[in-house]
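User: Here's a chain of 178 residues. Predict its fold as C-alpha cells.
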Amino acid sequence: MLILGIDPGSRVTGYGVVDVSAAQPCYVASGCIRTSGDDLAQRLAQIYAGISEVVARYAPGEFAIEQVFMSKNADSALKLGQARGCAIVCAANHGLLVNEYGPRQIKQAVTGTGAAEKAQVQHMVTAILALSSTPQADAADALAIALTHAYSRTGLVPRKGYGRQAKRSSSWREYRPD
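Assistant: Prediction complete.
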C-alpha cells in the first residue's frame, strides 16, 4: 500500500510517497509543487491540481498531512491554513482518509526527538529510506509525514484522522460518508 505525505505551503508544497507493503517502508517518489503568481486563489488551484496529479499517478491508499502550527506572522499562518485546506479537500475528493500529525510528533517519529532541526529530519529520512541523496527540505518533510503515518499504522505513533474514508460522488449534494 502507498502512503502520500503532504507538507503544505502556499508557495511550495512538498509531497512524498512511500510503500508500506513490506516490513520496512520503501521510497516511491517525492517532490515539490511550486506555485507561481500573486493571486492566492490561483496558487491554491495549482496546489489542488498538483496533488491531483500525484494521486492520479501513484494511487495512494492513504493520505497524511502536517497539522497547522502557530506562526508569529498571522498572514503567513492563514495562507498556510488555506493551502492545507486545499490539500485536504483534494484528498477527500479522491476518497482518501485524511490523517494529520503535529510537527513535534513527526520529528519524534522520524528522529527520536520532537525538538529536531530540519537537517536532522532530512538526514533521518535519507537514512530510513536508504536514499542516495538528500531530498529537498519540503519533500523530505513530506516523506517524514508519510513515514510517521506508516509508523502510526503499527501503533508506534498515536493517530488522528478525520473519520472514515469518504465516498466520492459527482455532486457535493450527493456527498455521503461511508
